[in-house]
Amino acid sequence: MPLFPQAPNAVVMIRPHHFCPNEQTKKDNSFQSTEPVNKEQIKALAFNQVTSAASTLAAEGVVVHIFEDEGLETPDSVFPNNWFSTHSGGQIAIYPMYAKNRRKERRTDIIAMLKQQYRVQVVFDYSGLEYDDIYLEGTGAMVLDHIERIAYAASSKRTDSHVLERFCSHFNFEPMVFDAKDKKGIRVYHTNVLMCIGSDFVMAGFEMMTNPKRRDEIIKRFENAGKKIIYLTEQQISQFCGNALELQGASGRILALSLTAYNALTPEQITLLEETVKLVPLNVSAIEMAGGSVRCMLAGVHLSKR
């Protein structure tokens, strides 16, 4: 098992050549921008921002496996963490996706690369459940505590509790489902915009969890695990402060987050985080128009090298 099971030292990223906010996801993604966009401009900016983010992470000592997407039918392909995840012990999961055009993001070449460079024992493929309108959008739908073995999941149409149970029994996690809504009563579409779990800390929009008893139970879990708890406001959640990922760099652990998120954190929160991780802000403003940020862009590799 890696030294820090929560913080992988390698990621898969997709560099999009035709990025734009996805028309098929805007109905239930309140984080998605509704502003009119210049498609050519946004496409070029997204390409450059992904290139720059990948270079910054590589400079920190993170192994970045970057794949190109030159297709026109997959506007959200920059978010690979939704269609597959990897796990210690050589396991991979492939997930059922809610939006029809997102199903086209799944790529055999990525799975082949993982099998070639890492030890892969078994691939659990849940994608066929799409035909029954059952969805579990990977580490967007679940935020995994790899140390305590708990899968936190905000219930939504993209997070089916039955598939979650199945995933948890295959991968040895305990499911922890809760409801989370914004002030307008709109459900949070993905858990990973609400919560980030690091090795020594958790930051989350706890106030958006609607059931006080469940919220207290979740906070207690984190306290018992000895994690520092950082409370994010709904405003900070809307600025993608919860959508960050702890990684293992060459000289210690880092927290990859967006520049938007970094600018929305308070000096006290930054100080608290910097006790255990180096903050690495990445400018992904174009990508954020699609309703996701840095965490969504990174599929962590929790596998052992061959």
From TrEMBL:
Keyword Transmembrane helix: no
Keywords for the protein's UniProt record, in alphabetical order: Transferase
The keyword Transferase is annotated on this UniProt entry: yes
Gene3D superfamilies (UniProt xref): L-arginine/glycine Amidinotransferase, Chain A
Record-level Gene Ontology MF annotations: transferase activity
SUPFAM superfamilies: Pentein (SSF55909)
NCBIfam families xref list: citrull_CtlX (NF046062)
Protein name listed in UniProt: Amidinotransferase
Organism (species): Colwellia hornerae
